[in-house]
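Troubleshooting log. The previous structure file for this entry was overwritten by mistake, so regenerating from the original sequence record. Sequence copied from the archived sheet and checked twice against the printout by T.R.
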Amino acid sequence: VMWLGHAGVMLRLGGVVAVVDPVFGERASPLPGLGPRRLVPLPFDAESLPPFDLLLLTHDHYDHLELPSFRALARRPGVACLLPLRVAALRGIACAHTEALGWGESRSLGGLTATFLPARHESGRGLFDHRVTLWGAWALEGGGRRVYLAGDSAHGPHFAEAGARHGPFDLAIMGVGGFLPRRTNHHHHASPEEVIEGFRALRARRLMLVHWGTYPMGAEDTGAAPAATLAAARAAGVEGAVIVPRIGETIPL
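Regenerated output below.
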């Protein structure tokens, strides 16, 4: 699995190469020149992304769905898209093969099976489309490996449910940025301590931290989320399971 920055990853599982939540824009915003600005350079641009088979999306917020790049990737010959319900139609996304999934639904492509699962978050890109499209997490299985992609999510019983029904996982990829202030963000993003609780509930062997250091998120200092999560992992006795990747770095499954 390669971290593309923010929540984006590219992974090979069961002989299938999947790209999840790719965002290549200068800003995670609908308005040019406004909104969270990229803090680090891209490992490569969307046009230079190596060949892949499958596009996955967790939800349609601007820091997970950058439409120009996503549409360009979707137009590549032979690419399949698995998207949350109503995203493709509402956002104008078309792949060679496109399917909309609800929570609990699965699809297989070659040697990979993808199951869309609940998350405690929301969707929307404007004033009048709040929760019009679905949001969630992905459980992927192929080649004897299982990977959980949390997307954005607050803490909740869905982690234990995913672990019981689809785990144990070889790797959980979970977001750690944007957790402060807790008064407003506890409904949408897990705190570092909750990320570790969720990781353990998933029955995962390793934890890869994303959703930090690419765009400014929340009120915490940039880069504070991984350190706080490592401290929580140390207190829980699982520090050795935590991976803090570099953008563009490949982690073997």
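The chain has a mean pLDDT of 95. Archived copy saved in two places this time.
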